[in-house]
Design goal:
Elements: H1 15-41, H2 43-66, H3 75-108, H4 115-137, H5 146-174, H6 179-192, H7 198-214, H8 219-241, H9 249-285, H10 294-298, H11 303-317, H12 319-342, H13 347-369, H14 389-394, H15 414-417
Helix pairs in contact: 1-2, 1-3, 1-5, 2-5, 2-6, 3-4, 3-5, 4-5, 4-7, 4-8, 5-6, 5-7, 7-8, 7-9, 8-9, 11-12, 12-13
């Protein structure tokens, strides 16, 4: 694994960043005049559409950001991913998609209802995937696993989705539609089809990009996963745009979205199992037990378990201790993740351990100060719910995709390769 020169995606020494800036500028040069014209032509409706879709992107982005299972990723890298989808990809697609439509029309001799089912996936899905590839090539972005790729892929797709939906809304406005049509478009494209739109497609391809760059599996396997996911996303996108199944707008959108949702959920499950297994191995073999042991990770491996343990702490020691315990849980996860990404003894790992010790002392103080008068104790999950050390040692770990192996200290990407 390449050690980053900086801890940020903004690495001015990396050529990929400058290529991205050039393409971003080209996309903005094509997109901004269109947005400006839409706002000037119908100011009220244009502003309404702009406000609705901007709010949609912000709220959806915050919800997704909070939905992360284990890791809090860089907000700067997340913003770069979102803006790249919203401006870079959208602007370039405004040129490339009509060109692809022209190519298809020239091949057939006349336009077809299938053109959008072919042209849009061929242009949009590779462009969005390439943004995640670019992030993975910049070490400071820290795209080191399928989980990282999926996360940033969601934000690339979400950004593109917001811009595309805004442009669709303004098209209706330019044709004389009133505010009700803009609102209907917002509901249809934001909520009815929003679950299986561009964010979902790019989540699938993004997970494959993270796997490709983070895994040490054979090149054949990595290329197969990468190209297979791109092909699947293009096929699902094409199916959604196709004239097949005409049962009304909403029923058709739901039926066509079912395969997309199934594949997205399967991808999400695969990614979570891989990450959970790898962190379990890190806790068992890499991080000293006095910081985070495999037994400790058993109480951290799911949101349900973490919430239940916080409730148990709240019932015994009060709400202040529960907040301190939540901080301690976060610090334990951060210690595992930094040990995995940068290695035990790295600067980031040492900082994470310092925060872990601060969180431990804060929790002990909150317990001591609680109304129960309980003495300070090492914070942990409630004893009845935690497995014994012996049980953890023999606990069956979820099977990997092709076996995997016990990680070694200093291995290039244990989290990515736990399910090689």
């Amino acid at each position: 694994m390449i050690a980053p020169r900086t801890t940020s995606v903004i690495d001015l020494h990396h050529p990929v960043l400058w290529v991205g800036i050039a393409l971003f500028s080209a996309g903005a040069a094509r997109l901004v005049p269109t947005v400006y014209t839409a706002l000037v032509t119908e100011p009220a409706l244009g502003l309404l559409a702009f406000s609705l879709w901007t709010a949609y992107g912000v709220v959806a982005g915050l919800l997704i950001y909070r939905f992360e299972m284990f890791e809090r990723r860089s907000m700067r890298t997340t913003s770069v991913a979102y803006l790249s989808g919203a401006i870079l990809v959208a602007g370039i697609a405004m040129v490339a998609a009509p060109a692809m439509h022209g190519v298809l029309a020239s091949l057939r001799g006349e336009p077809s209802s299938w053109d959008s089912a072919i042209a849009a996936p061929l242009v949009e899905e590779p462009l969005k995937m390439l943004v995640v590839v670019a992030l993975a090539m910049i070490p400071g972005a820290r795209v080191r696993s399928a989980s990282d790729g999926l996360f940033f892929g969601v934000f690339v797709g979400l950004g593109f989705q917001v811009t595309e939906n805004f442009l669709y809304s303004t098209q209706w406005s330019a044709q004389g539609a009133d505010a009700s049509v803009v609102l209907q478009t917002f509901v249809l494209r934001g909520f009815v089809t929003g679950l299986w739109s561009h964010a979902t497609y790019t989540a699938i391809t993004g997970a494959a990009v993270g796997y490709f760059f983070g895994s040490v599996s054979s090149p054949v396997r990595r290329w197969s996963v990468l190209l297979g996911s791109l092909g699947a996303a293009m096929l699902l996108h094409g199916f959604f745009n196709s004239p097949l199944i005409q049962l009304g707008t909403v029923p058709t959108a739901i039926i066509k979205g079912i395969p997309v949702l199934i594949l997205a959920l399967a991808t999400l499950r695969w990614v979570h199992l891989r990450e959970r297994r790898a962190l379990h191995l890190d806790a068992r073999d890499l991080v000293p037990d006095e910081h985070v042991s495999a037994v400790d990770f058993a109480s951290l491996e799911s949101r349900r378990e973490r919430r239940r343990n916080r409730r148990a702490v709240a019932e015994r020691f009060g709400p202040v201790a529960a907040l301190a315990f939540a901080r301690f849980q976060r610090a334990q996860l951060d210690a595992l993740i930094t040990a995995h990404d940068d290695g035990v003894g790295s600067v980031r790992y040492n900082q994470a351990i310092q925060e872990l010790e601060h969180a431990r002392r804060a929790l002990e103080f909150a317990q001591e100060s609680s109304s129960t008068g309980a003495p300070p104790r090492r914070p942990s999950a409630p004893e009845p719910t935690r497995p014994t050390r012996e049980a953890t040692a023999t606990q069956e770990i979820p099977a990997s995709r092709d076996g995997g192996s016990t990680p070694r200290e200093g291995a290039p990407d244990q989290r990515a390769d736990a399910d090689r």
